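Escalated from tier 1: 2-acetamido-2-deoxy-beta-D-glucopyranose holo job.
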Amino acid sequence: MNISTNAFYPSSSPMASTCHKLILQTFITFLLMQTLTAQNSNLFREYIGAFSNGVRLSDVPINSFIDFHFILAFAIDYTDTTSPSPTDGKFNIFWDNTTLLPSQIWSIKQANPNVKVALSLGGDTVHGLPANFSPCSIDSWVNNAVISLTSIIQEYNLDSIDIDYEHFSTDEATFAASIGQLITTLKNNGVISFASIAPFEAVNSYYSALWRDYASVIDYVNFQFYAYDATTNVSQFLSYYDKQSCMYIGGKILASISTGVDANGLSPANGFFDACTVLKKENKLPGIFIWSADGSKADGFPYEQEAQKLLAIPYY
Ligand SMILES: *[C@@H]1O[C@H](CO)[C@@H](O)[C@H](O)[C@H]1NC(C)=O
Ligand SMILES: *[C@@H]1O[C@H](CO)[C@@H](O)[C@H](O)[C@H]1NC(C)=O
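Tier 2 regenerated the structure:
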């Protein structure tokens, strides 16, 4: 279902770019990098609930010396049917809501004042099909999304949304305007207090368009470093980290790993925590996230413990 974006989005005249502009831009970027580079902070985030394997919030070890975010995966604007179809921003619950109930979210927050809970939107697939970002128009999508998400967020006592669309039936400008307006409205309405995005290289054109216009309402960048090859080594990881710091200038870019079967990117065995230590020594590690608690459950969450321990230590 391809959408003619011209119907609702005026085409902008491309700015003529010259060598001088590029050089100036590079210089300004360099200045910004010097002043806006993220600093260390102790935030750990973990996705949970996508695989419906019964993993509970209370299964995951929580270090009380850090900030901890669970991220429910996922709410998707698709019908929850055997042949799911897009709903133009009307979100349904697709995380394991037989286990991850409002009462459990209430309990984990009561027991751990350092815990907040976010809701991730989109994800890779919906019942085996790609979960496409497919608005009918920016206005209708934003209106439907604000109403349906407000209801879910209030029922589950959530604090935040995370944007994880990975497939698109529309252009970058429409994605940026729709998501930017959604985050802005939910923040202005007091429904959420922070927001994050979860890009990877292949979708950077969409997320950098969003970042260009709405960086000020995006608190964290959950960059999916585990989308890189499984042969990634420490020096490659560090160069990817710097590259993405230039893509999302001024952003708090979290280092990340994937656990369970099919884990790619720089693994703990190949030096993920060494790379994090290097970033931390350079005072540019705002946090770490793991995809996912579902994948870590079988091994007893060793990397969750190690990541939180590393973040809890003030300096090296
Ligand atoms: C789980 O979510 C689905 C889809 O929104 C809903 O139909 C169902 O009632 C929910 N189950 C529980 C236990 O809340
Ligand atoms: C990391 O991988 C790159 C590309 O394969 C290679 O050139 C480099 O030598 C490797 N670094 C280390 C420390 O193994």
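The domain at 41-312 is CATH 3.20.20.80 (TIM Barrel).
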